[in-house]
From TrEMBL:
Compartments, as annotated in UniProt: Cytoplasm
Name of the protein this chain belongs to: Uroporphyrinogen decarboxylase
Site (Transition state stabilizer): D75
This protein's encoding gene: hemE
Source domain of life: Bacteria
Keywords: Cytoplasm, Decarboxylase, Lyase, Porphyrin biosynthesis
Pathway in which this enzyme or protein is active: Porphyrin-containing compound metabolism; protoporphyrin-IX biosynthesis; coproporphyrinogen-III from 5-aminolevulinate: step 4/4
GO molecular function: uroporphyrinogen decarboxylase activity
Catalytic activity: uroporphyrinogen III + 4 H(+) = coproporphyrinogen III + 4 CO2
Length: 344
């Protein structure tokens, strides 16, 4: 591990005059070279499980832009699949899964020790990347956080308000909490295997954390995240971890301390100035340019980028978007953002 990697310095708490930068969904459909490799693979899941092609798409944005980090190409829904859920993607609509709504569904899941059988190609992708990446580039592994993964396993699809998951939580707490526990245990094993294969940092995506309110947020977003982080750090001392409780709002405050995360990723529903004052005082933050600027570009892209760099300039910061880049983004706008961050 090169001690001079800028991402690792930020995660260790160092303030840098130019923050390191990477981008959520940096390997994705806005890039023509991604679309070409995706077509070669067939469908999205075949791409995830093809270690050679998944390595290739992970490297594409590194070659094109020289980002400071590469994120493993995979998906948060591979873990449910490894636990025995059926998973498929409907073009233009998104993921579909078999649903879990009762004890029988929970009992039918595979034991956590069986997940590696399905996920071995993902670990191979990590090993490929660990040897293929430039020495200055940090390799990030990831998984979904338990609540977000559970929302898909319960509803069988993405939902605007996570209604089915909230309903199960309120109607059958034993099944809901049993499912969350199973996902938590699976996530520990999955991320641990990614770290053993060469991931230098891991990130937990809790994309739907914002729909948990009050004590539910503490119980189902904060607590499982804390459990995963403490177990990973016990097994892999010093492994840096990024937590992303998207749209947590006020609940971003204290999230470093409550979970043990080295870095808290911030979405763009809060201002960088607010997050600098209330969240960055506790440690590294990542974020938080609105991904719409990658579509619209222009002067606003440059001025917003510079505003965010300045707002987070007095503490440890990793520049990123507030959420994933969208397929309608212009690849030239990504370069403009990078130039604005690096001061070119
Ligand atoms: O950041 C990265 O580039 C790493 C790879 C990654 C993907 N998905 C690749 C992907 C990561 C970290 C994810 C996370 C993910 N996947 C989340 C949480 C983060 C978030 O964006 O909120 C969720 C909810 C999923 C589930 C999922 N996978 C959805 C809702 C979709 C969109 C379906 C669609 O048709 O747009 C996917 C597909 C997906 N995952 C794509 C990529 C690049 C698009 C695949 C394609 O069609 O080529």
């Amino acid at each position: 591990m090169a001690a001079d990697k800028t991402i690792l310095k930020a995660l260790a708490g160092e303030t840098q005059s130019i923050p390191p930068i990477w981008m959520m969904r940096q390997a994705g459909r806005y890039l023509p070279e991604y679309k070409a490799t995706r077509a070669e693979a067939g469908d999205f899941l075949s791409l995830c499980y093809n270690s050679d092609l998944a390595t290739e798409v992970t490297l594409q944005p590194i070659r094109r832009y020289g980002f400071d980090a590469a994120i493993l190409f995979a998906d948060i829904l591979l873990l449910p699949q490894a636990l025995g859920a059926d998973l498929w993607f409907v073009t233009g609509e998104g993921p579909r899964l078999s649903t879990i709504t009762d004890q029988a569904g929970l009992d039918a899941l595979k034991p956590v020790s069986d997940i590696h059988e399905t996920l071995n190609p993902i670990y191979q992708t990590v090993r490929n990347l660990a040897s293929a990446l430039p020495r200055e580039t940090t390799l990030i592994g990831f998984a979904g956080a338990p609540w977000t993964v559970a929302t898909y396993m319960i509803a069988g699809r993405g939902t605007p308000d996570q209604g089915p998951a909230h309903a199960l939580k309120d109607e059958d707490k034993a099944v809901f909490e049993g499912l969350l526990d199973r996902i938590t245990e699976g996530t520990i094993e999955y991320l641990s295997a990614q770290i053993e294969a060469g991931a230098e940092v891991v990130k937990l995506f809790d994309s739907w954390a914002g729909s948990l309110k009050g004590a539910d947020f503490d119980r189902y977003a904060t607590a499982p995240t804390q459990r995963i982080i403490s177990e990973l750090k016990a097994r892999h001392p010093g492994i840096p971890i990024i937590a992303f409780p998207r749209e947590a709002g006020d609940k971003y405050i204290g999230f470093h301390a409550k979970t043990g995360a080295d870095c808290v990723a911030i979405d763009d529903s809060v201002s960088a100035e607010w997050a600098a004052e209330h969240v960055q005082k506790d440690g590294c933050v990542q974020g938080n340019l609105a991904s719409s600027h990658m579509v619209t570009g222009g002067d606003a892209l440059v001025s917003e980028t510079k505003r965010i760099v300045k707002a987070f300039g007095n503490g440890p910061h990793i520049f990123n978007l507030g959420h994933g880049i969208t397929p309608d983004a212009d690849p030239d706008n990504v370069q403009r953002m990078i130039d604005a961050v690096r001061g070119a």
